Amino acid sequence: MGKVIAVANMKGGVGKTATVVGLAEALAAQGAEVLVIDLDPQANASICFAGNDILKELIEGGNTIDGYLTDRIFKRDDTKVFSDCIRTHVSNVSHLDNQLPISLLASSSELRLVEREMLYRLNRTGTDIDYFVDKLHDLIKDQLKQARKAHDYVLIDCPPGISLLTETSIRLANLVLVPTIPDFLSTYGLQTFCSNMRTGEIAKRTTLDKPKKPYVLVTRVRPINEHKHTIELLQNERLKGKPTFHLIETQIPERAAIASALGKVDSWPSFTQKWKDTAGILENLSNEIKEVLHGARS
Ligand SMILES: Nc1ncnc2c1ncn2[C@@H]1O[C@H](COP(=O)(O)OP(=O)(O)O)[C@@H](O)[C@H]1O
Ligand SMILES: [Mg+2]
């Protein structure tokens, strides 16, 4: 069974999508079958993997996560499954002359409306929110189980904030990765995000899977004192009696190569051409994630 990695943070612009794209490609370059699920209505991961033409085709055919949820929840089509919407061999990146084995379950801007529509319907029909949270949890759990049979890793790119879908993915993931810029404001929000995962109304529900302690990944690191100091504080978290998170040792630097790699949407580079001097860092990240998921570290 493959492993599910949810990439999430309350904050936007911290490198969630950059992490999903880089990590998916590094894992795939090392030979793993990877599925990327985009849960962000901004569809950034979708456009990075699919490019303009394929993404347009997926959206027009209703083969996106919002298309899936609309059919399953609003049209009550119980036959619809993730694999109807998953686009295989979607990557335009190669490694040693082979196309990277990456599949995509894309999203579109309509996803924003799907969650709003769910809440309207709940209100109109007087349905208990708990019933709905359970239903969504079971629905996604069932589909992820199928996806895990066909892929070594399932990476979920979450939108900023905690939507019902994000909360569900966090609960069902084997690993929750929280990309964080090592500065004061980002780490202030980080403590709130990590503790929110484990408290609050939904967290009290024993019928749902419990979220695991998240792993923070420092991103967009610059050689400035503020970042150096904050990284030290993050490293000290493990010395606390009850740490709220683990820390990934690999650090993702702020590099022009990363920003421009994300823009290589409709070109066909190799993995090392695409990521240039950061390819090695992504390989380190991929190795460390494998060690966390399969090795002695927990
Ligand atoms: N390590 C990095 N170095 C340079 N630019 C980065 C890096 N990570 C992300 N970016 C840029 O920062 C912006 C936000 O990154 P993104 O991954 O979209 O964040 P999020 O998904 O958390 O909103 C994008 O324009 C992206 O190109
Ligand atoms: Mg994003």
> Distance between the terminal alpha carbons, to the nearest Å?
18 Å
Widest β-sheet, arrangement of strands = 5-2-6-1-7-8-9
Portion in beta strands: 5-15%
CATH class: Alpha Beta
Structure in words:
- The two termini are 18 Å apart.
- The protein has 13 helices and 9 strands.
- The strands form 2 sheets. It has a 7-stranded parallel beta sheet, sandwiched between helices. A two-stranded antiparallel ribbon has the order 3-4.
- With 298 residues, it is α/β, with parallel strands linked by helices.
- The mean pLDDT is 92.
- The protein is globular.
- It has one domain: P-loop containing nucleotide triphosphate hydrolases (Rossmann fold), CATH 3.40.50.300.
- Helix 1 (16-29) crosses helix 2, helix 1 (16-29) crosses helix 13 (279-294) and helix 6 (129-150) crosses helix 7.
- The protein has helices at residues 16-29, 44-60, 65-74, 82-85, 111-125, 129-150, 164-172, 184-198, 200-203, 225-236, 256-262, 271-275, 279-294, and strands at residues 3-7, 34-38, 94-95, 98-99, 102-105, 153-157, 175-180, 215-218, 246-247.
- Bound molecules: adenosine-5'-diphosphate (ADP) and magnesium ion.
- Magnesium ion binds at residues 16-17, 40, 44.
- Residues 16-17, 40, 44 line the site of magnesium ion (MG).
